[in-house]
Amino acid sequence: MTRLVEDPVLKQRYRFTREGDVLTVEAWVEPGGGVTPHVHPSMEERFEVLDGEIEFLVDRRWRALPELVVPAGTRHAYRNVSAGTAHMVTEVTPPHELEEFLTEVAALAREGKFTRRGLPTSLRAAVEAAVVAARYRDTVELGFPPWFAVAALARLGSSRTTGHSTAIR
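Request: output the structure for the sequence above.
Response:
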C-alpha cells in the first residue's frame, strides 16, 4: 500500500501515484483544512471532489464545486467547508516536483515549524520554509510572503549551510 503524507497544519493527508506525465494526488481534507492562494506557473490541475464539500477560490470568489480545472498560471486555493473529512482527487499535468514540494512542506508542519495559521514559529523556521519555497519556485509560487522576502531568507539559509554567515538561533 502507498504511504500517506500527513500535513497537520493544512489538515490533510495525501497519497501520490504517477503514471507517465500525470501525477494523481488523492487528498483527505479535514474540516477547516485546505491550501492558501498560490499559482503553478506551468502545471494544470484537475480537481474532482469525491466526498464532502470543497470550496475553491476562483476569480476572487469562493465557490463549492464538484469539479474544477485550473489552468497553468491561475491563482487558486481550496478549503473544506464540510462537517466531516472531504475526499478529492487531483490530476496534475505536468507534475514537475509537486509531490516533493508537498512532502517537504508536510514534514516541516509535522516538525512544528508552522502555527495553525501557517506562519513560521521562529526565524529558523521562516528560513527553512523560504529555502523550500525557493527550491520549488518553478513548481509553485505562494501568495505570501512576497517573493523578495522569500529570496532574502532563502539566501540566508543557503549561506548558513555553506558556513558564510552566523547561525540563527
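DSSP finds three helices and eleven strands in the chain.
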